[in-house]
Amino acid sequence: MRFSSLSHTKPGLAPLEIDYAKEYVLGFPVHVAILVRCDQEEAVFRHLPFVDFLDTYGAIGLRLQNEWNHQEIVAFEPEFIVDEDAGIPEFALGPGETRRLLIDVSDLIPLETPAGDYFMRISYATGSTRAEHQPELIVLRRPNAEEQGILSQIKPELLGEGRWKKWTTTPPRDLNHFTEQVTPEDPIRFNRLLRFLFYSPQPLDQIDMTLLDGLDGIYYPEAMLLRAELLMARGDHAGFDRVVNWVRQSCPGLSYWVDEIAAGQSPLADQRSLSNV
Amino acid sequence: MLAGSQAPYVLAYVAGRQMGRSGVIPQNTAQYDFPGRSTDPFDPWNHQVAVQAGEPITVRLEIWDDRGDDPPARLITLSGQILPPWQSGQSTLGNGPSLLYTVTTQLLPGGGQQATVTPRAHMDSSTGATLSPPSAIILELTDILGLYEPGYIPPGLANPRRAEYHPGYISHDDRGRIYINGDLNGNWTRDRQSIQLTVRVRVLNSRLTGEDKIRWIIIDPDDPGNDDPEVHQQWGSYIDERDYPGPNRPQGTHGGDNEGTADRNPVWEQVGNFNLAALSNTEATTDIVSLQGESLSKVILHCPNVKGDNLIVRAEFRTSRSIPHYPAQTGILTMWERIDVEYIRMEHSFDLSVSSIPLYFERAYVQFDFARQRVVQDRPFMAANRDRLGSRSSSYLNSIFTHKNQGGWYCLVLAMEPYPIPPIEAQPLYSGFAHLHQNNRGEEAVDIPGRHLDVEFVKLRWSNHEVVFRIDSPHMVPGGAGGQRTRCWLEAHDIQHEFVAGDGSLSKAYEKSILFYPRGCIENGTFRPGGYQMSSPVQVEAIGQRPPSGISPSVVHRGKGYFAGRTIVFTHHVSYSEEDGVSYTVQERDTLSGIGRHFGIPWERIYHHPRNRDFRRRHPDPNLIHPGDQLWIPTRRPRADFTEKVSISVVHELVHAFGMPHKCGYWNYRTPRGRNRGRTCCMNYTFHWMIDNRDQLVPDTQGMRGPEMCGRHLKEIRRVHLEDNPALGW
Questions:
Q1: Domain span including residue A239
Q2: pTM
């Protein structure tokens, strides 16, 4: 049997590009956006693991190395098994496409991790599609008094594994008095707003869009898409088109989300419909 | 009579209960002695039957021939009755081939009353006498809490489970079930499996003393899971290796084969003031206490935690006095896992009778109890698109599964369609010959001319064979007609032939695989040639998108995926249903979405259906329709084999829920490896071949999937401890 290794190379993923905050607060979500793309222009990936801000489905690895003594305090490899029966979310990446995936890796960071400066390296997928990026320096700091207060306030709802996912996807007890205001300093502003958008008794077309103004920095592209969903719910097609243009030009990795909304398949409305099953 | 037989063996039944399976009867044997130990009361060939006065005892003996890979054949059947008064001594059953057996009758004394008798005497004499029965102690097992009788329906219980607690039932029929992870009241309880036995002490013409005790003894009888002639001996040795001293060498039933451990040590637990002295893990004594005019003794026994493990408990009277005493013992008590299934159907999904599903799991000692079906609102598509299917299915189940994370509960949902799918092209994307390519790892690709990046499957045909591969990452390469070709990397057929019970994680289930490609396979990272033995070029048919017919969304815990006991089956899938339709005249106040809701179809599917082309032309705005308009409603109807096919899928998904992998490469428990015959284990896919004893593929075995499992899946399901699966949250 002869192998021809040079001309028969399977397509793979290009090294990840990441969008991250310089500083994270221990005990809170650690959101990082990764950008996935193929290392060949004319290729399709049929079964890439879908990960999002609610669940990484085991497809994300994380390494944290102390900047000072180079001690590795987190070494977590992705473990993703393609199993069509197991309902593990996948997506297809078409030729030339990119995909931006905002993820929360806080579940991979032990709660007892000491504050400090760390080199972070995120890896995605396994086997021939595994990809990672160059280590980036981040700061993990302890929560201040105000942040500690937030944690104490929601502590009863923050239990066990996947705690931020559970918190975000669990309706608050009193829906009638459910309102949310966020500030750029709030470390759970993204989860807080998502939860509000999922469970607010107000119809989507009546939700105050200025709420999204608090989502800046790393959250800005996703906030634009949430804005697009609200615009579509209001029937504001011109406003929606403006967002679409921005996404296509500035953040094409989120085009899939735009396409879903345009096809009447708003993920937000879909998620809301589940609470009415 | 046995001339020409290959490996004859005996099955014997007394009073309808199977006694066991013998070893192989040697050739030219004139007389075969069952290899029991006649002095041992627990010898599998020594059978104790309680009969009422006047009742005959049926005896049946069957001699079967184990013909290796061919189905076993029944050579001889002898049947007869032992008639009352069941005289002790040797008897023979049958002429020609015959069974010589020994009956030992033990007449238990009746009640403790004295009887008045009249002696024979002259007519003119007047006399009388009193006959006193001898002193004796008789034990009777009166109840076993935590034991469940299959088929028993308690009075007034509207929705009984497949086995229920029946006061006084002591498994006289050997079918009694004890649930692992069950408390004495049948509630799911983590790491607990126990029964409480009560024995009544009947004292005839005597008194009990403070030194008298009940001695409890546990016997571990043979695991009968492999005794059925339908179980091929290759699987028989896997199910109970103690019955097989070597490959394909059955030696008959052998006890002492339990695998599980109890949740405590010692296994005995005291009940109230029935003082306990545990002598060992197979023996204990308890006090006899007088309660409401009865002399009783009770004890709690903690049982092994592996399904299919079995035991008999014997109660004996222990005394230093010389008084006749008669022991009591249970029938065979077997460990089972009970799973309740929350059964949900969307209003317009097709209904499925699930009555046959539990039967496929009974060989694995799993009792599935489907709750009464709950009908819920339609959701014509589970997800907006394929990318969202996994997460949406998971969210949907989280919202609808009311017993989620409740011990002992799974969930089955009959839904409609996974996501909107463009009509499947009648013509394949490509059909013709194409070359195979291999990279330096042994992975293979097929090149098809032209640009076909939407290819999802390829059907490969060669030398009258055919298999289907999913496509992993198609990409364009130069060359061929039009200057470009689509290189389709094939997803290997992964065969998990050495799987073992695990913690429910996908990584454990798929820990070890052989990856089969057209011309080779990879095992433990090492390539070896072979595979499907295809030659290049090969005839190729490239096919587009095919949605999944069912999904069992896994759950991630600490970065690992776990099977989670929740299954959705899409009854409108093309495998299960075909297009049908009706004409509909639009009524006053109708809307397209309202019509769609009525028929359980998305309005878009009605509006865009080719038969509504004229309607579309007349109504470019779907919001404006008029009474009297004619519409074609494209409904679906179940295919003729709907029930069979969906049932197989349901069994397949429920087997996953025990942490079991698919694609084992085996046939069902009736069939050995390596023979193209019968039906395959339900965990296989329709498009791959089975494997033989040398891990080579057996040709043309695709599409032969049945609803039953292979012996390995049956055995490993028995070994799984579902409470260890964190995704279940039990």
A1: 171-274
A2: 0.89
